[in-house]
Amino acid sequence: MKILHTSDWHLGARLGDYSRIDEQKEVLEEIRHIAEQNDVSLVIVAGDLFDTFNPPVEAAELLYRELKKLSDDGRRPVIAIAGNHDSPDRIEAPDPLAAECGIFFVGYPEMQKKETVLECGTRISFPDRGILEVETAGGEKARIITTAYANENRLRRYLGAEDREQKISEVLGQLWKELADKYCDDKAVNILAAHLFMSAVSEIGPLFSEELPENPEPEGERSILHPGGLEMIDAALVPPQIQYTALGHLHRFSEINTPSGAPAVYSGSPLAFGLSEENQQKYAVLVDVIPGAKAAVEKIPLKSGKRILRKRFAGISEAEEWLKENQDCYVELIVRCGSWISADERKMLYGLHPGITALIPELENDEDGDTQYSESLPDLGKSVPELFASYFEAVKGSPPDTALMALFGELSSLGEDEE
Length: 419
What we know:
Number of helices: 11
Structural class: alpha/beta
Distance between the termini: 66 Å
Helix content: 25-40%
Largest sheet: 8 strands, mixed
Low-confidence stretches: 204-217, 222-229, 371-378
Strand order of the largest sheet: 7-8-9-10-11-14-16-15
Strand content: 15-25%
Shape: elongated
């Protein structure tokens, strides 16, 4: 059985003022082509389908349209679980119609639904809470234990964990064991799909000190380690019957060792969404597995989407030359200069490149290491309206008119009254 594993689509995500929807369309088409070219029988999307609980309409339309194409009317069923960026209710809302298209949404860890048999012959059954069984039209079978993202309070209610001192990871591990012992034999492929933070204890050092030196998690993903979230799950809790663990949450491809030797993999996001993912190669994961055997994992590089870069330049002219030659990316510019960058220089640089996310001046230091401030900096002894006028002129290239200054004065007085 060939399974395609992907995660962390974050549909509707933006990078500052830039929409990413066109890139997301492109990369989802690429993922679908990978599934078609490799004769994939099943697709797992391991959480964070959307970027926010209330995604824009175009993001929802893109999700449903592309999942329908990906599922091929149920001949290639898609299992999609909720991540920490998703609303569980929103994820499960289209389920009756989606199921008829071969798309099965899992919003809550305690998921259990009615059996669905599609016209193409695909059968999806739900023998217990948190597990489903897929039988494709070609007769291939897979059992998938699913753990959609949930905070600790929700998981405790679902698992019936009354002892507040007991680690939730232990209770979750016990549930996985019970489901695997009861349902996961060698007559079908056995998969665990989860959106959480998992690591082998022995790998914490090298994984996070060498591979991810700046931040072990992508921007916006730290909440899972904080109060109200879920602590790290030890890979040793993965039941030995599980042949492959499809993980979502971290945006960089990572493979984790489990005691049984079965791969546990973060597929990573298909696009870079922040500077913590600077210049990263992204992947979709192809899993080739038969019942009772070790899964073979192939990471397939994705070509769609723009890189995100942070570049430092010694001056305006150097930045200008680089921008002209590197158009297909998003870039944060740090420009070393002797004074603040003028409005005309800013306008010129932004006009050279379609993807500048920020332009940060870095003032030169004197021989003693002290910052040399430009004479063009505003006199901090000025009044607030005068400082505002100076700032406005520096950014816009001309001073504010009388009406705008009057409005600013009115707003300033309101603030003083509130204080």
